[in-house]
Amino acid sequence: MQQALREVAIVAAPKNEDIALAITNHYLAPNLRVSLREDFLTLLMPETTSRTESVRETVLGRPVRGQRVVEQTTSIRLTPDPDEICFDLVVAGDISTYAITDTGPISMASRGAGQFTVQKPVKICQQGLVVGPATASASNRARLTNVSTSFDSVPLMGSLLRTLARNQHAENLPAANREVAQKIIWQSCRQTDEESERKFAELTEQTEAKVWNPLVQLGLNPATFMETTEEQAILRLRLHADAQLAAHTPRPREPENSLLGIQVHQSTFNNAFNQLGVGGQQLSLEELFVRVQETFEAVDPIRVEFADGLVEIQVAIDALESGRRDWYDVIGRVSYRPVLAGNRILLEREGPIRIGGPGHRGRIEFALRTIFGKIFP
C-alpha cells in the first residue's frame, strides 16, 4: 500500500495531489481512538484531601505560631485546541488557621479563613508532555479572638495595653491579610508544581516504556492526532507498518455523554500480530498446556475480526504435537462478546470453538478441542 501511494505521488500532477491524500485518508485512517470527557479526567484526580500543618512564619515582621487545616480538591478544566490535548490542572482549597502573635508583653490570638485556586497549564503535543508554571489567586480573612498581656494582673495597665493592641491589630489587618494571601499563593504554587511535575514525569516514563516504545519496536510507526473540545480530550493513533493498511471503514458513533470512549479498529490487532514475528516459528507452550508444541503458519498466524458485535479470533497452526498425536494445517476460530461487569468490560466466549483447515477435514477431534479450549479460555 505504501509503495502504491509513493508511485501515485510520483506520477500525479500537482493538481491531482488530492488523489493521493484521499487514498491515504481512506485506507490509512487512525485505527485507535480514545476520548475522555472532562468529568472523567476529574474522577482520575486525587480525592478531596485534608491535612493539618504547624504554622511558624513571620507576618508584618512579627513571629506567628499556630496550626492550620487545609482541605483541597483537584479537577481538570479542558482548553479547546484543534491539534493538541490542552487542559488546566486546577487545585482549589480552603484554609482554617489558629495563630498566636507575640509582640513584647502582648500576645494576640486570631482565627483565619482563607481560600486559594491554583491553575497549572498542561498540554500533550507532538513534542510530548509540556507543563507550564502554576499560577494562583488567594484571599484571607482574620479576626482577633483574644488579647493577653503580661500586665493583666495590673488593672489599669493591662486594660490599656489590650485596647492599644486591638486598635493596632485593626489598623494592620488589611496589610496582614494581603501578606498572608501572598504567602498562600506562593506555597500553593510551589506545592502544586513539585507534586504534579513529579507525577507527570512518572506517567511519561511509564507510557514511553509500556506503550510507545513497544509500538515503535514492533515497527508500527505510531502517529498521533489530537484534539481538545470544551467537553472532550480526543487522542487518535495510527498503527501500521510500511506494507500495512490502517482503518479503512467508518467507526461507529460512540454513545452520547459517555465518560470514556475507546474504539479500536481490527487492523490495530492484525497489524500488531503480523509484526510479532511468530510466523513460521516453532514455539513451546508447556506453561499453558502440558507438552504441547506448535508452529504457526507463516502467513496470518493470528487474525482478529470485528463483526455483528463480536470479536472473532483465528489462530492458524502449521503443526501441533501433543503426546502421540500430530495435527497439521489446522485453523481454530472462536468468538467473544463484550459484556459489562460493574465498571469493567470483559470478553466472554460466545458459542463453541470452531476447528477447520486442510488438516481437519471435518473430523471430531476431542483432544484437539481440549487443546484449543486451553488456548481460548
Question: Overview of this structure, please?
Answer:
The protein is an alpha+beta fold and 377 residues long. The protein has 6 helices and 16 strands. Strand 13 (302-307) and strand 14 form a beta hairpin. The protein starts with a helix and ends with a helix.
DSSP helical segment count: 6
Tell me the total number of β-strands.
Answer: 16
**Residue-averaged pLDDT:** 85
Share of residues in strands: 35-45%
Distance between the termini: 36 Å
Structural class: alpha+beta
Spatial shape: elongated
Helical fraction equals 25-40%
Largest sheet: number of strands, sense, barrel closure: 6 strands, antiparallel
pLDDT under 50 segments (min length 5)?
A: 287-296
